[in-house]
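quick one, 203 residues, struct below
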Amino acid sequence: MCESRSADKGALVIVSGPSGVGKGSLVREVMLRDPLTRFSVSATTRAPRPGEEDGKSYYFLTNEEFLLRRAQREFLEWAEVFGNFYGTLKSEVDRLLGEGYNVILDIDTQGAASVRKLRPDAVSVFIMPPSLAELKRRIARRGTETPEVIDLRRSRAEAEMALAPEYDHIIVNDDIEIATGELMDVIAAHRAAVNSNKENAQC
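---
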């Protein structure tokens, strides 16, 4: 006979996709609709910007603190961007999962590969644009990129999209309502599977 079931554990969800595909908007929609889903707060060595708070926007660390934590293997993944370090703390992810929250990691394909290796309990989702032409149009619509940068982003997007088959799920973000529903379905199904496996392990 099984032991009484403890509180549900959250699902760990990796979300990747090319710049301009709308990952951020999609993740925000999911969190607005699902109070059990949280975004993992990353650590960084860059200086806080006006309005940013330590522990809410980022965990702001010195270079020495970041490198020490990296040496102690406290990050699920990390990267150096424009001279600053960014990383996902294992302790932050595990704390939220243990409290019953689903945790979304919005990370690039390199970071996703690292997390999948360390955390086989994670489910991975790649967000695809309807087409490369539409992706280029969305980036251009921002009005903040030069034609050269737009072409560079498109080339990088092609390389990233070639890795999509390595993910557990692919969602095409053509309509944000539909894509949000699909991502929420993936999270709910994975959460149910995680807790079903936990309950079976107690029997």
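Residues 45 and 61 are 5 Å apart (CA to CA).
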